[in-house]
Amino acid sequence: MRGSRIQIEPVVPGIVRVRARVGFMEVPQVPALLQEAERAGLGIRTDHAVYFVGHDDVVITDARGMARWRKLLFLFLANNSQFIGNSFGIPPARLMQVGGQVEI
């Protein structure tokens, strides 16, 4: 739809890309945006969608490049950041985390 905040485009058979435009100060609620896409002609039901998000754990190593106190500060900030599911209104029961470790 032209002028809509939702764009639906097929990628390959069985996979569809949904793009949603949100405002700078707007808190994006992903389940509500997917329901909007469903009404715009997505072609699948989103009631029981499972959401995949990436999450990396920061691990401090002896690698050179950053002072140890900066590594500790970065680790503290990373551990105290807001959980991504809360930021996008994703129900915890329908969230899958995929991640790894990042060494600093």
Please describe what this structure looks like:
This protein is 25% helix and 30% strand. The protein contains three helices and four strands, in the order E-E-H-E-H-H-E. It is elongated, with a radius of gyration of 18 Å. With 104 residues, it is α+β, with helices and mostly antiparallel strands. It folds into two domains: 49 residues, no CATH class; 55 residues, no CATH class. The mean pLDDT is 83.
Secondary structure layout plus pairing:
Layout: E1 6-12, E2 15-20, H1 30-39, E3 51-59, H2 68-79, H3 84-87, E4 95-103
Parallel strand pairs: 3-4
Antiparallel strand pairs: 1-2
Quick overview:
The protein is of the alpha+beta class and 104 residues long. It contains three helices and four strands, in the order ββαβααβ.
